[in-house]
Amino acid sequence: MTPETPDDIEGFHEKGSVVSDISGALGAATQATKDHQYSKKTKSTYQGHIDRGKAYAARFPEMKDAFVNISYATLMMLRAFVSFQCQENNYSHKTAEGIRSAFKRYFQETFGCQGDTWKCDEDGNWSGNPVFDPPFVEYMASLKNRDKLSGVSKQSLPMSYNDMKNLMSYLQKEETIGQHTESLCLLFQAFATAGFTLWTSKGRAKIKEPFSHSRIQNVLDIFTNEAGLLEHRNGRFSTHCFRRGGAQYRLMFAEEKWSLKAVKWWGGWSEGERTGTIMRYLLDELVRYESGFGDMLSPVRNDSRHSLFMGGASATEPITQLPLGIALEGQRRETDASISSTRTELRTELQQLHQLVSNVEDSMVRKLQTIIYGLPGILEASMSQVSHQQGEQGREIQEISTKGALYLKKMWTVSMRKSDPSKYSARKLIATEFNLLGRSEVAMKEVHGGALSLVRDLIASIRETKRQRKRSREGQEDGGEEEVEEEEVEEDDGGDEEEEDEEEKEEEEVEVLVRTKRRRV
Length: 521
Known about the structure:
By secondary structure, this protein is mainly α. It is about 60% helix and about 0% strand. A two-stranded antiparallel ribbon has the order 1-2. A two-stranded antiparallel ribbon has the order 3-4.
């Protein structure tokens, strides 16, 4: 037979069954639950709430047994005690939660109240736990909303490095020393300096303390408020602030940062402390900074931490090596393409400029040739229009190309030369000088300057230049011979046909040389 109730277990125990061993094991399990379900600190805190609740009920004779026996008075007294602690003593919702948890455990262990409801049946019997009474549950929710609306956090703020500097500067001012005495200011400076290593989350020193925790907290409230550390901050500084601030400083902001294990050891955390709890203490300020968006309207905000889902890229966001390399490679390619394009454009522009200059030079040469060779009957023709033919009178039509200017030399007959020998001599003199200067218009301008405007002045300049050249070659010779020679050129040479024949032969030889050179080209 299998035992189904505690009475069955008791009966089996009396018969000497093996169930007696199970009963002992169950008793040991119950005792272990009582001893180790809650830590010593938690059990001490819960017992303090129960004692204060009973003391508060003892103020009212008709309610003194409200927590001794379960009744309607229990519900009213529980709500009244929480209201007294949180509203008259100005405790937070966390204190109310602590009282609720303490009485929930008290009702479970003392009266066997189990479950998460509280109701009365038709016979007047209560079932459940009084802390789940609907009016009490609603009151607890209202306390939580009240703390949210008040905007004042009851959580201890961390004492940062800058806060510590400002606090020390305030404590060393003469006005502060005169107001609070030098001994108190020095004492608090020493306390604040060693607060990280001396104080734990319980708020008590590890060595004997000369005065109470409330006294230290009172002085801490006064000094932090007067030093302006609470400006624009939601919360207050408690003795625990040094532990939080010191741990955060050593882990994240110190020049020589500590490891997490070292911070845990110096901060007094146990080896079995949950990592989430430690990270909440250490990274609370960092997480709050990264998850807050209070600086969105600031013109100098750091946008890098706002680049989240659907967020735009930040202009100040630090760049990594891979995107930087890709960007530089793209920039290099764009630069190479731009240089190549610019080089091509410059080459094209230079070619166009060269062609333009050539056209200008050709035009100027044609004008100069028109001045020099502008005789009646001169013909201009393209290369396709000129052919090497023999005329009926046996005269060969020859061509000479000088930068695009074509003329038929044989069209200038002997009779034409005899009809106007002075003009022929003048043009011959100019042509000879132009050829001598390499057929360069620039050279003509450099040598003869402004004499190019009139043929008469140009003839005079050429003659003078020839005299100077002759003197430089032959030394200081008599200039009269040159003048006689020049005058002979101007004389009528119509009767000297032998000289003209020699000149024609020379010209024909030149023409043959030009043809030969062109065929080679």
